[in-house]
Amino acid sequence: MLTIWNDHQWLEMFRMKRDMFYHIISMLGPHIVRQDTNMRLAIPPDKKVAMAIMKLASSSNLHYIVNQFSVATCQLFKDITANKIIHLANPQQVIDSFNKKGFLNCIGALDSTHIPVLCPAGRGRAFTNRKGYVSVILQTMVDHQGWFMNIYTGWAGSVQDARMFRNSPLPGLVEKGHYAPGVEETVIPGSPGYISGHCLPLKPWLWKPYGGNITDPQKLVFKQCLSSCRMAVEYAFG
């Protein structure tokens, strides 16, 4: 197909010119080459990239695309984009970004939400949350952009967020200094930590808003900065 399409068909299928397509091939090709085996011939890099770009540039389903290129199975997203697109944020960049927003040494924002589920047989009361519907709790940590860095779920909707948090892997990891990949353990003031809402327990590495009527100027600034940074996790939940 790549050799018989004219320029108009090329633009229609890929939304880019040939020279841009082959520029992408030159960058990705060396990383996605596979060896032929006794069982099957490897899919050429240009065909892998062509299928991926066609999918991104059109509403065509995968069955149509692989038929166009005579490919029986398609691993194009895993082969081409997994390591480049699907990855955790750099921890130091997250800290630096929260620093710019006025909250120092923050590695992430924590919050929980309820995911509606079908009622488990005989356990409706346990899974019914305070709002009256059946759910499981999803605990998340996001970066400054609202991108998920860690999730923990499965607890019944009636369970308090603080109890689920205490039983999640995160506290144990943090106590060992494992805040996030690339963040070293420190014992001096200014260690990295997380921000959260009122419902989680206060810890040296877990910071939450002041409660009640606040009049102290420094506490007001702290609360405002924390609330501003926590908007990231609220945006993540939509």
From TrEMBL:
<keyword id="KW-0540">Nuclease</keyword>
<keyword id="KW-0479">Metal-binding</keyword>
<dbReference type="GO" id="GO:0005634">
    <property type="term" value="C:nucleus"/>
</dbReference>
<dbReference type="Pfam" id="PF13359">
    <property type="entry name" value="DDE_Tnp_4"/>
</dbReference>
<comment type="similarity">
    <text>Belongs to the HARBI1 family.</text>
</comment>
<feature type="domain" description="DDE Tnp4">
    <location>
        <begin position="110"/>
        <end position="238"/>
    </location>
</feature>
<dbReference type="InterPro" id="IPR027806">
    <property type="entry name" value="HARBI1_dom"/>
</dbReference>
<dbReference type="GO" id="GO:0004518">
    <property type="term" value="F:nuclease activity"/>
</dbReference>
<dbReference type="GO" id="GO:0046872">
    <property type="term" value="F:metal ion binding"/>
</dbReference>
<dbReference type="InterPro" id="IPR045249">
    <property type="entry name" value="HARBI1-like"/>
</dbReference>
<dbReference type="GO" id="GO:0016787">
    <property type="term" value="F:hydrolase activity"/>
</dbReference>
<keyword id="KW-0539">Nucleus</keyword>
<keyword id="KW-0378">Hydrolase</keyword>
<protein>
    <recommendedName>
        <fullName>DDE Tnp4 domain-containing protein</fullName>
    </recommendedName>
</protein>
